[in-house]
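Section 4.2 – Deliverable D4.2 (structural model, holo form)

The reporting period included a commitment to supply a predicted holo structure for the target in complex with adenosine-5'-diphosphate. Inputs used:
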Amino acid sequence: VPLLELDDVSFAYPDGTQVLRGVSLSVSAGSRVALVGPSGAGKSTVLALVEGFYPLTGGTIRWAGTDVRELPRAALRAQLGYVEQEAPVLAGTVRENLLLAAPDAGDDELWAVLADVGLTGVVQRSARGLDVPVGDEGVLLSGGERQRLAIARSLLSHPALLLLDEPTASLDACNENLLRETLAAAAADRALLVVAHRLSTVLDSDQIVVLDGGRVVARGTHAELVETS
Ligand code: ADP
Ligand code: ADP
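Output (structure tokens):
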């Protein structure tokens, strides 16, 4: 049984905008699935539905075989690490951001997760270490660094499935490479569902699902997709 399964999912926003039409996909434990496609295809909406922001208007989402409508929302969310596209970090320090997810974590654990996302060098550059500010005055962390901090924060709650929305959207090529390494580290012991518009970010996914106009128009590994296009 897959960890996550979308079965013929359709969705219209409350204003009537039909966004998803018969989307089916599944994410097995430990696997990496990427959702790609043009802006407006419905990729972010898929993640929002998994996170439970809106009720489905058609189809079923299952978690480990159980219809999510039968699961307590908090129990499901505890298994998910959802990193939104916008506002990935809060005002405060690196430490405060990380402790939000794991209030009892010690410095060793915090440094370990920062190493996973490639941030230790950045934080060590400041004498303030984990107490580097990241909010409005947080010029010490760039946009890409803040995004990696948001991922680090979600890793600390040990989700079974990481849901990442356009993690590289605002990143330059160098940061994109760092982030690909971050994803590889994050995927070592959990499943990943990643939204991206650049195929380069998700080359090493186990499956790439291409959405267009709210429909799945292709799926396969990168090699398979290149072969058939
Ligand atoms: P096609 O794209 O020609 O429909 P596919 O093999 O992609 O062929 O899909 C066949 C059927 O199986 C479709 O209904 C599709 O939605 C479903 N399907 C394919 N792969 C998956 C998957 N990983 N998870 C859930 N359903 C899938
Ligand atoms: P993608 O992530 O592929 O760019 P989205 O899932 O963000 O696509 O959006 C899909 C479609 O849904 C777009 O046409 C977008 O304008 C529309 N949409 C997104 N959010 C809302 C909302 N809250 N209310 C109404 N329409 C929305």
